[in-house]
Structures are given as structure tokens and as C-alpha cells.
Design brief:
By secondary structure, this protein is mainly α. It has one domain. 85% of the residues lie in helices and 0% in strands. It is built from six helices and no strands. The protein is globular and about 45 Å long. This is DUF4345 domain-containing protein.
Length: 128
């Protein structure tokens, strides 16, 4: 089941990364809450899109070859978790923290939680 979840996350996060890299202005306007973070910065959007592609590659590698891909999964999960932590901080500092967390749940918090859970629970398999 973890491999399937990892593969699905890889596809979704990879599509997001590609959209950020090749259709950044569209992505910026399409994702709820993003325009409230400040003016569109194409370089920044592409940078984060590249990070999403790397995280997606790690998840895909784990889905394909769990033992060999676990370190890449762990790195991808680390990015997603740190990214989610930034969103927690921003929500805590905002005027509507619960609304911000609810808005970001499916796109930020859930992928991070799933990737981290898979990485932690499959650590023993990676050592074998």
C-alpha cells in the first residue's frame, strides 16, 4: 500500500512541479492562497517547482524500488515536511490560522504527512 501511495503522490507532486516550472503564472493564479503571499516571482515559483520535482522523483523511486529508493524518499519527505512547517508558521502568524490550515491541508499537509509516515515506517525495510 505504501508503494501505491508513494507512486500516486509522485505523480501529483510531479505534475505540480511541472506546472510551476512551465506554467508558473497560471499556477500562481490557480492555487488558492498563493496570490496572497505576494507578487508573482517567476524565478521563485520555478525554484520551488524544481524542489517538487525532486521530491516526486524520490517518491517514485521508492514506489519502484523501495530498498534502494528509501534515501530519496526520505529526502523528498524532508522537503515536504519543512515546507509544511513553513505553512504552519505562516498560519500561526496569520489572522485566520484555522482557515489557512484547512485551505492548505490537501495540497501541503497531507502529502507531507503521508511521505513522512511512509519514510519512517519503512526505515527498517531499507536497512535489510
Amino acid at each position: 500500500m505504501a508503494r501505491w501511495i508513494s507512486g500516486i503522490l509522485a505523480a501529483v507532486l510531479g505534475a505540480n512541479g511541472l506546472a510551476m516550472l512551465f506554467a508558473g503564472f497560471w499556477w500562481y493564479g490557480a492555487v488558492d492562497g498563493v496570490p496572497q503571499t505576494g507578487p508573482y516571482n517567476p524565478h521563485f515559483v520555478r525554484d520551488i517547482g524544481a524542489a517538487y520535482l525532486v521530491a516526486a522523483a524520490g517518491l517514485a523511486w521508492f514506489a519502484w524500488r523501495p530498498r534502494q529508493g528509501w534515501p530519496a524518499l526520505a529526502a523528498g519527505a524532508a522537503f515536504l515536511t519543512l515546507h509544511a512547517a513553513i505553512h504552519v508558521y505562516d498560519a500561526a502568524c496569520g489572522s485566520e490560522p484555522l482557515r489557512m490550515v484547512a485551505r492548505d491541508f490537501a495540497g501541503v499537509f497531507l502529502p507531507a504527512a503521508l511521505a513522512l509516515l511512509i519514510a519512517v515506517t519503512h526505515r527498517a525495510e531499507a536497512r535489510a
